[in-house]
Give the backbone structure.
Amino acid sequence: MDKRRRMGPGKTNDQVSKRAWRVRVTVPRSYVPWASSDAIHKTMQQCRDGRTAPEVALRSNLHRRGMRFRVTARPVLDFRRTADILFPRRRVAVFLDGCFWHGCPDHFTPPQTNVQYWTSKIQYNRLRDATTNQRLRDHGWLVVRVWEHEDTEAAADRIAVLVSARGIMTCRP
Ligand SMILES: [Zn+2]
C-alpha cells in the first residue's frame, strides 16, 4: 500500500486546489463561438502558431532575392501593431493578411453558424487594418498589404519594387 492510499480517500489541500484550478481554466467561455467548421479551426490554429505557409514562402522568396528584413516587428514602438515583414531603413511595413480574418473581398464568406458574430468581428478587423495603415503612414511608413491568396512570386516582385524605390530613409520618426 503506498503512502497516498494510507492517507485515506480524502485529498490534501494541495491536491484539491490544483484540481480546482485545472477545472477553472478548462471551462469553455460560452460567449465566444468556437470554431464551427474544420476550415475555421484550421485558420485559428494557423493564427495561433503565428506562421502560415504563405508567410514562410514570402519570406524565403524575399530572402533569396538578397533582401534583408525584420520579421514580426513593430514599426512604431509605442503603437501596438506588428508587421509581418519590416524594412526599417526604408521604412516599409508588410502585412500578410489572411483571407478569412481580414475579410478578403474574393474569399471571405461568413461561417454557417454565428454569422452575426463573425461578420462584425471581421468588419472590426478591417477597420483596425485601416487605422493601422493611417497611423503608420502618419509616421512616414509605407504600408504594403499582401493577401494570403496572392501569388508569392508576384507579391515578392511588388515588394521588391516598392522597397528599392523608397531609398534609404535617413531620419527616423
Ligand atoms: Zn483571398
Q: What stands out?
A: Helices lie at 3-6, 13-26, 38-49, 53-64, 115-138, 152-166. Residues 1-33 have pLDDT under 50 and may be disordered. The beta strands are 70-73, 83-87, 92-97, 142-147.
